[in-house]
Design brief:
alpha/beta, 10 strands, six-stranded parallel sheet, Rossmann fold, two-stranded parallel ribbon, UDP-galactose 4-epimerase, domain 1, 2 domains
Length: about 300
């Protein structure tokens, strides 16, 4: 690569950042982690090539975060970092948004043409940040890339996949066999690849890109993969959906891990199109959806307490 290109990275210690930064450094980039809340314009050197803004307030499934916290963590913070980017000599700004900036549920295939109508404070705050960046378009010598990933997984992930893994590891049968669904996921390796391509190439147009693996997966497929990693028998129960929903409502009332939100996460359809990013990259993702999932589950197996 010659002289290493310096990249400012906020949120470098988070799940995405802890995977992305070593990956980029190994390729010859020089990632410079910064806490976005401590940003001062004086720290930006003239030879910084790009900004990657990962820092933000994560979606809280327990609904304990105030709306103002999301606004501060996802909109105001992004505005602050982007304003510094504008005054710097850097040429690329990559913002990690979310498909939740568009919607929380969909019956179709979500692409970039969907009119955003986020249902949560988290999604709205991400959309506000997106709009601010877009309003600053047409800056000479500068590009912005708004990335909308679906659920990202990989080593260090502590979300729903990890909870599902722990459930299956106990040897309990999966009780939601009555549901048939398809959901898009994004392997951290595919996300790393996409960001590397954006940094390395000059022919990728700025704009908004939905990010997902090439193939959606059903929850049953995930259960099958977990059992394959654990070398366990594939056990699924087909409990009537009405009964399952009633159990989830009990979880809502008593604030249990299995509740309506968790049930929806496990059973709803949410398919995201990655056609736009595939087209500009002239090909599909390097990691197949099922292979990426297998590697994530393997990492759970290696690090489980």
């Amino acid at each position: 690569m010659g002289i290493s290109k310096k990249i400012i990275v906020t949120g470098a210690n988070g799940f995405v950042g802890s995977n992305l930064v070593p990956y980029l450094n190994e390729l010859g980039f020089q990632c410079i982690p910064f806490k976005a809340r401590d940003f001062e314009e004086s720290i930006i050197q003239s030879d910084v090539y790009a900004f990657i803004h990962l820092s933000g307030k994560a979606h809280d499934l327990k609904n304990t975060v105030n709306d103002s916290d999301y606004i501060q963590g996802n909109f105001e913070l992004t505005k602050k970092v982007y304003d510094i980017y504008k005054s710097s000599n850097s040429s690329k700004f990559i913002f990690m948004s979310s498909v939740k900036a568009v919607c929380d549920s969909t019956t179709g295939i979500l692409d970039e043409n969907f009119e955003p109508s986020p249902a949560t404070s988290y999604g709205k705050s991400k959309l506000y940040a997106e709009k601010y960046i877009q309003e600053q378009a047409n800056l000479i010598g500068k590009k912005f890339f708004i990335l909308r990933p679906c659920m990202i997984h990989g080593p260090g992930n502590k979300g729903n996949l990890n909870l599902l893994y722990k459930f299956v590891r106990l040897g309990l049968p999966y009780p939601l066999g009555a549901y048939n669904n398809e959901r898009s996921f994004l392997s951290i390796d595919n996300l790393n690849f996409i960001i590397k391509e954006i940094l390395s190439r000059e022919d990728i147009p700025e704009g908004i890109y939905n990010l997902a693996d090439d193939e959606p997966l059903s929850t049953k497929k995930i259960i099958y993969t977990i059992n394959r990693v654990l070398e366990k028998k594939y056990m699924i129960l087909h409990i009537p959906q009405c009964l399952v929903k009633n159990i989830a409502r009990v979880g809502d009332f008593f604030k249990l891990p299995f509740n309506t939100i968790r049930l929806n996460k496990l059973t709803e359809n949410f398919v995201v199109s990655n056609k736009k990013i595939r087209n500009v990259l002239n090909g599909g993702m390097p990691i197949k959806a099922e292979d990426g999932l297998y590697m994530t589950i393997e990492s759970f197996k290696s690090n489980i307490n």
